[in-house]
Fold this sequence. Notes:
This protein is 35% helix and 8% strand.
Amino acid sequence: xxxxxxxxxxxxxxxxxxxxxxxxxxxxxxxxxxxxxxxxxxxxxxxxxxxxxxxxxxxxxxxxxxxxxxxxxxxxxxxxxxxxxxxxxxxxxxxxxxxxxxxxxxxxxxxxxxxxxxxxxxxxxxxxxxxxxxxxxxxxxxxxxxxxxxxxxxxx
Length: 156
């Protein structure tokens, strides 16, 4: 697979590479038809799947506990099962990439989005992140780690 990716990248023009830095819309990447690179449909996913259908209507999704609530269980197997369920739901919605988990380490109790991430403990967060991603990817859906660092400050 790595060789295929390098081969495709070497064939892409600068304009094509730049075009992949932004989507066609909020949920789809650009396709590069001449190289057979399809558009990828994404779903927001730290605590559930959120995306649209082919007509642009928002699709309802299961709402799972927040990252900090998941971490409070200290249950790696449970977090893996949640990842599996998220992957299954993403597939039903024809998504190939789930935008999650959110893994920013809580550095201040004042962080307004701390609830989205697992914990202030790097070891616990790492173990839960691996379990979550392994679960999602076991369903053939990619997982995209969100807010790896520096998402711990609020303004207005």
